[in-house]
Amino acid sequence: MSSLVFKNVRHRYDREYSVNIDRLEVAAGKLVCLLGPSGCGKSTTLRLAAGLESPLEGEIQIDGEVMANDSIFVGSEDRRVGLVFQDYALFPHLSVQDNVGFGLSHLSRADRRRQSLAMLETVGMQGSADKYPHMLSGGEQQRVALARALAPNPRVLLMDEPFSGLDVVLRNRVRDETLALLKKMGTTVLMVTHDPEEAMRMADEIVLMQGGRIIQQGSPGALYSQPVNAFAASFLGDVNRVPVTAVGECYETDLGPVPAAPDIDGPVTEILVRPEAIRFLPAVDAAAPTGEVALSRNLGAFCLVDILFKSGFRATARVATLHQPIVGETCSIALNLDGVFIFPSAANAQKANNPVSN
Amino acid sequence: MTALEFDKRPSPARWGSRHKGAPLSTAVVLFIALFLSIPVLVVFGYIFVPAGDVWAHLASTVLPLYLVNTVTLAIGVAAFVLCIGVGAAWLVTMCEFPGRRIFTWALFLPLAMPAYIIAYTYTGMLDFAGPVQTFLREAFDWTRADYWFPAIRSLGGAVAMLGLVLYPYVYLVSRAAFLEQSICALEVGRTLGRGPWRVFFSIALPLARPAIVTGLALALMETLSDFGTVQYFAVDTFTTGIYRTWFGLGEPAAAAQLAAILMIFVFSLILLERLNRGKRKYHHTTGRYQKITRYPLSRLRQTLAVLACFLPVFLGFLLPTGWLLKDSLSHFDDVFDAHFPVLVLNSVAVAAVAAGLSLLLALLLIYGIRQGGRAPSRLKQLSLRIASMGYAVPGPVLAVGILLPFGFVDNAVDHWMRTTFDISTGLLLSGTMAALLFAYIVRFLAVALNTVEAGVETVTPNMTLAARTLGVSGIRALLRVHIPIISGSLMSALLLVFVDVMKELPATLVLRPFGFETLAVRAYEMASDERLTAAAGPSLAIVAAGILPVIVLSRAIARSRPGQKHRMKPGAL
Q: Is the pLDDT of residue B367 over 50?
């Protein structure tokens, strides 16, 4: 059963829809990431789920109960959802323990204390129960915010960019710890992020949004390897935009011929190629696409290699460092068609205005 | 309020498309702001009312005098407060000498002393019959004609009195500015071969200048507002001129026009400060704040430094307070008569009510403009600015700006009632407690606004939302989240307004209900009757109350770290 369901939900602040979702489901125990550029409506979607915004149309359900539709609106205080804010929003006047116990006011003092301490222990913060928020580091504050949201045993945990306040090194660790904890507790989670790497790392399912709409929804692997349009392809990872020079049986490009896809609706002016789909041939092959290595950057496990073709087109390839080519070297390449995406150019032109670099 | 508003919404199923900011709150905020700006608008409105012969008479006789005296006073006070304020701030921040830590906070103390009270005490000490001159006469066997002694009741005396109690404004901001300056900038100066004096003039002072101008503008606003001192010293300035034109000559229109001229002075000061503030953000190139290595001083210089810091505290606070104490004790029965508790009660009651009302209004305005957790609209921000404008309005101007419209309403109502029902209602607003409280709120709301706003800003919208998702909303969220976090600021706001009201003289003098006496009014009346010893009791009580915010202030500053903004005595700036 789905813990959280959006049906035909529309919301707007101004003239245009900020959220326009036909259907969104978060299955029980799953972690779903709302991913998208800023202003795509992902945070509003989260606020709709939390009851901090009310939809203009449509229905929102939690555990099968209607939270909002034309006649009902359950306020966030009665929804039994947990919300972790980007800035944590810890109460500065309360100790860590009292912060965690804030949502447990229905319990007796002793029970509240016991449960808060148990929750703090779960997140590994039992030693800081009597401290105040300003005495904690960023990572510790994040864990307290998580404990506070989880303490009342919410039906859905909502997280709004919960790791963006942490520095890179800490972020990876806290992310893994949080994920492990949420999985252990079997919590249903809807999380907002603008970082595709974070989404792929944490999510059971990614919901990619743009302009208030859901562009694509699926497992991280599916989104990465089967994007539905150029925007999805470029948002989830780097792509080379390779101009199509001729169209016949195949699309002719500097990177070699790509078999035409039969079901493409419209002209194709460029194809998208993931850097790792470019493979170096062991020797120069006159029959294969050939270019000169213009730049070679070692990033540790793999390296990024820029190849300059005669036409002046420059492509970036990602190869294992063991095979790092040398700048100035001539090389021949082949394409792995799994990392090659073809979309009609109208859609490309429309969506390609969102260059993404990560 | 953000939290409450959700509860009150009857059927909140469809508010997804509502417009940003509810129009109701905008209307309320705007209405309050406009209501509070009535005095200023009235005063400026009178520029266009012909005042006839009186004005020509004023212009040809006293106006040049008012102008020269006011400007001289302002320039004199500016020089005075700059020397003491900036100098003392530099000494306690950058130099090491005995007692430095005590002076750090003690230099605030004169802030507790209203200018008119210090004027009374120094007159008591230094005039012909005072102990100093008496001592000189007895010691040297002089008579009145044998010696010259500077007259304390003069323009120079007024400069000294105002300078002694207003320099803390400049001291406060300069010290904060020197502390905030990255020590690296100063150290670079030293490594480039500049000595302490040249580092001060070529680096520290230019960096601190924007802050110093702010402090100076506050001090000058107080100078322009001063009524008690110049009135007592018989120095004719705009404030005394306004008072005399109305109550001596009985010419309200001319008084309002004088008030308008004074307001133009005040607004130019505000403008100056605003323009200056644009340049305020000197960015520090390093975020590191090292511990300041203070200059060690030679024995001689240490003595001079101690003297330079001690004199302002001694002359601005210790000596006059001691004098008041002596007078109060030596004339104990005369001072603390049966009437004294009534004075205290009146002062405390009116100050407490004014402080409470100001606090409520401030909360209403601030939660009104913050409604919905979204950025407040321009209109609302403007309203807030208008509502805090009164802080810049000198007391006599305020009195004029309130008496005129209130009198108009009284007359209109009385006339209508008489013609319709043949009943005379007399004065409904003028000379009532309502008029007085209105004046206090207009004048001091900015104090409450600034303090409350600083507190409310620490409650982020997300904290309110976090409480909601944890099942706590409405009144309970207010009690459990907002109030505990901002309670400190609310207390400070109450205290600051309370003390400001207790010290306020000119508006109280003019607007109070008949027979209603406060400590400030009694001190003024006794001093005007040349019964300075009888003025000592009320004066001492006011000073005692004035010390409270100084303590709060020094504690706040002691807690703050470099890089943090100090919340200083606020202004409408």
A: yes
Q: Determine which of A76, A80, A164 to mutate to test the interface with B (most B C-beta atoms within 10 Å).
A: A76
Mean pLDDT of chain B: 79
Residues B213, B273 contacting (CB under 8 angstroms): yes
Q: What is the pTM of this model?
A: 0.73
Q: How far apart are CA B199 and CA B218, in angstroms?
A: 27
E strand or H helix that includes residue B295: strand B295-296
**How many CB atoms within 10 Å of residue B299?**
8
Taking CA atoms, what residue in B is nearest to A17? B17
Residue type present at position B381: Q
Q: What is the pLDDT of residues B406-447, one digit of tens each?
A: 888 887 887 787 888 877 766 677 778 888 999 999 989 988
Q: Label the pairing between strands A270-273 and A340-342.
A: antiparallel
Between CA A36 and CA B26 the distance in angstroms is: 35
Beta bridge partners of A341: A272
Give every CB contact of residue B481 below 8 A, 6+ residues apart in sequence: A91, B3, B459, B463, B464, B467, B472
Cβ–Cβ below 8 Å for A50 and B472: no
Residue partners of B268: CB distance under 8 A and separation at least 6? none
Structure tokens at A293: 């290595």
Q: Where are the domains of chain B?
A: 23-559
Q: Which two tokens stand for residue A180?
A: 């492990």
What are chain A's domains?
Answer: 2-230 (3.40.50.300), 238-351 (2.40.50.140)
ipTM over 0.95: no
| Nearest residue, CB atoms, B472 vs list A12, A71, A105 | A105
Is the Cβ pair A102, B11 closer than 8 Å?
no
Beta-carbon count within 10 A of A310 CB: 10
CATH of domain B23-559: 1.10.3720.10
Q: What is the pLDDT of residues A172-231, one digit of tens each?
A: 888 999 999 999 999 999 999 999 999 999 999 999 999 999 999 999 999 999 999 999
**Per the CB < 8 Å rule, is A83 touching B465?**
yes
Torsion of CA B360, B363, B368, B371, to 10 degrees: -140
In whole angstroms, what is the distance from residue A67 CA to residue A79 CA? 7
Least confident piece of the model among A79-88, B166-175, B363-372, B436-445: B363-372
